Amino acid sequence: MEYDIKEKKKRPQNTNLKLIKNGDMILTEKGRDILSSPKPYTALWEKLKFWEDKKLRIIGIGVLLAMVLLLAVGYYVLTSYRVNTVYVEGNIHYTNEEITEMVMSGNLGNNSLYLALKYKDRGVENIPFVEKMDVTILSPDSIRISVYEKPLAGYVEYLGRYMYFDKDGTVVESSNIKTAGVAQVTGLDFPYVVLNEPLPVENKDIFQQILNITQLLSKYELITDKIFFDYHYNLTLYFGEVKVLLGKGDTLEGKIMRLQYILPELEGKKGILQMENYDENSKNIPFHQENAKD
After folding, report:
1. Partners of 226 in the beta sheet?
2. Hey, where are the domains in the chain?
3. Greatest CA span in the chain, whole angstroms?
4. DSSP characters for 186-246?
5. What global pTM score does this model have?
6. DSSP of 3-24, one letter per residue?
7. pLDDT digit string (tens) for 52-72?
8. What three-state secondary structure class fits 142?
């Protein structure tokens, strides 16, 4: 069998064709330029860096402006709200000067805005007789200090100290100082006294009677030195050298109302005024005068 063998035509050889081995990278002239560059995509990099720097500059300027504004506001508050005038109300146990010194102590103590925020209906600790204080701004340089003292019905002496109690008989303060305008209560029997607890007396209703007495005395502008209860809870009030016997609590208001007109006539005298049996129909009230030396 005969086969026709035809010779294959050779393709023309491309002299520019290069053989690339596996693993080698094809690089164009442009690619070589990019790879040979020390920072690829330099233009894009510089553009991003520019915007990043601009953003940081904006943030920095904003922070600086905020600080300047804060300093300006702080300077305005410190200079414009400096206290020059103080009004004090509601204080009995302390003078205006003492209250002012208590409130305006410490850093920023002379700044009205700071004081108004600090004493906004704030309870007060470690100041005897004071429950809370409030500061109101009347003008940037003027404030009003409102003092709210603990309501006191009287005090008893115990172990050399004055134990002040409220309308419920609860001991609210212990002090070695007598307070003007608060009456001493004697005749009560109690085995001990504990601060912030009621006085342990047998007759708990006695405190309501003491409250009634102090309210009536305040109503008729009378100040007694001492309130005394005997064993049967008969009431005696002391006004200087005058001892007023009032008996039981019946018709107490009528007796004290009449007493306000009698006491001025007894000024400078010493003795006992008997009003136990007084009523609105009484014409004569016995007064047993004693010698001033007795």
Report:
1. 184, 238
2. 85-149, 154-290
3. 177
4. ES---S---TTSB---S-TTHHHHHHHHHHHHHHTT---SEEEE-TT--EEEEETTEEEEE
5. 0.61
6. ----PPPPPPP-TT-----TT-
7. 666 777 777 777 778 877 877
8. strand
* Encoded tokens for 58: 């904006």
Per-residue model confidence (pLDDT) at position 287: 92
CATH of range 85-149; options 3.40.50, 3.30.920, 3.10.20, 3.30.1380: 3.10.20
Q: How far is CA 262 from CA 78, 153, 256, in A?
A: 57, 24, 10
Given this model, what pLDDT does residue 33 score? 54
Q: Walk across the sheet containing 184-186 and list its strands.
A: 171-175, 161-165, 154-158, 184-186, 226-229, 235-239, 242-247, 270-274, 287-290
Residues paired with residue 136 on neighbouring β-strands, in sequence order: 144
Percent of the chain at pLDDT exceeding 70: 77
Answer whether 142's CB lies under 8 Å from 85's CB.
yes
More confident residue, 291 or 272: 272
Question: Which residues on adjacent β-strands are paired with residue 247?
Answer: 235
Residue 168 Cα distances to 10, 154, 182, 211, angstroms: 127, 11, 15, 9
pLDDT tens, residue by residue, 247-265: 886 688 899 999 999 999 9
Say how far apart CA 268 and CA 291 lie, in whole Å: 11
What gap in Å lies between CA 98 and CA 102, rounded to an integer?
A: 6
Can you tell me the distance from the alpha carbon of 183 to that of 164, in angstroms, rounded to the nearest whole number?
10
Three-class SS of residue 144? strand
Residue 199 burial (CB < 10 Å; 0-12/13-18/19+)?
Answer: buried
Task: Note the CATH number of domain 154-290.
Answer: 3.40.50
